[in-house]
Design goal:
heterotrimer; A mainly alpha (134); B mainly alpha (162); C alpha/beta (241); A: 134 residues; Arc Repressor Mutant, subunit A; 2 domains; elongated; C: six-stranded mixed beta sheet; 35% helix; globular
Amino acid sequence: MDDNKQIIFQIQPSSGVPIYKQIVEQVERLVASGNLSPGDEMPSVRRVAMYFQVNPMTVSKAYSMLENSNILERRRGLGMFVSTDIKSSKTLKERIEIIRPGLEEIADQAKQLDLSKDKVIELLSKIMESKNGK
Amino acid sequence: MQVYKQMIINDLKKYGIKYIFPILLVILLSSYKLLYKGFDASLLKISDPALDIPAILIFTMVHIIVPLGIIYQLRSALKSDLFVLTPGIRTKILFYKGSVLGIFIIWSIFIARITGFKEIIFFMFVYSWLISLFLIIVWGFKYIYNSRKYMILKIVFQFGII
Amino acid sequence: MENNDIVIRLEKVSKSYGNKQVLKNIDLTIRKGTIMGLIGKNGAGKTTMIKALLGLLKLDSGKATVFGKDSWDLPGEVKHRIGYVPQKTDIFSGWMRVKDLLDYIGAFYNAWNKDKISKLIKEWSIDPDARFRDLSEGEKQKVAIVAAMGHDPELYIFDEPVASLDPVARRDFIKELIDLNLDSGSTMLFSTHITSDLERIAADVALLKDNEIKYTGSLSDLKEQYSEKMNLEDIFLEMNK
């Protein structure tokens, strides 16, 4: 069990936002930003409830909702993990946005190295094709 | 049982001093009867008016103080929220106080030297009437014990009235 | 709807004291395993409602049941399953030592969890040899809570259980409640005016206003009905206008 890992989300019980919603939104953001990676283990319901002193059912509800939207997956006997099946958890738009930062960086480098757009895309296509072949 | 022992201790701690008065009277009457009148004599038979009449008056007084007091204690105990919700506590309190009352009645029979079946029955009747009277004085017509089934307590004792 | 998991049910419960109506047609259902917070202004009738559902008061009309049994005159087996912490702690004999008091109460229950009692007494820093009357208000309240937990009840009813506790003690208490809820799925009803505690621990809330239950439902639904800027205290003030 992971129970020594630090809990990286925050809960404010006295907020106007319901607790379960706070958890759902935060986990979504953490996964989207890469702070939580596919396969990472989530802290147990008990641990979250005790740590923040909140109703365990609320935490359960958040985890269930995240499971339903495929952001988390339940592994029997082990607990909740960040879904490795990231494809189905995101829309096309969301997925494209995840690689944007990487692309921005490539664009910057290309500019610095004075490489044309076509050259870069040509290389990218080759790389992606070879990866698809695997 | 441990619980009863604790109840007795609780009782003494709570009321302690107040028990002295009736206890003294009981001792007084018992001594009078045993030492002066003799074991076989009845307190109710007047042989020496100067002493017997006050004795009978005291006897009557004790008979009002003690049962009324016990019933009054019962009422405050049975009313307490804690006791209402603790399982079985009220039954045990009833049993305990009832036993004390029973012992008192036996003492009465002894003091008044009531013998003979008919006399004892008559005495019980009078006593029931007295108890039912006190129950009504202390409780009015409210439910005893927050329970319908214990209305029976009052009704049973009503037989005395007949 | 599964009826077996209804722990408390109040149907059209009304209660008046003389001319003053305190409860008017109260309807409330509490299901097993839930933690429900009862909120309302002081004097709104929270304690009356709790006493009515426990059979400590007679209803004027309506029906109240606990574990399916009529509240007025609850059978012994139901009493074994309820842990009640009343608002006032003066019901305990002041002269008794804490440990003797707990032993005495424990003697009436079939199953008394001595280990849990010792653990809580130690964790909450209560002196078992102290006489009850010598304790502070907060310590008395803690003892009352411990006394209600000893027989591992399925249903806990707390009437303003933390009113006299300092923030640290309140945290400990809430942690204990969460533990209980997790381990044994106990159902809990508690009345409090400390909304921040409720926001942590309650899944459902019931709002008592003007002698009626003005809202009953999940806390998250309630928060979603109001602006995100409003926490429970704000909502409560708003609803009480």
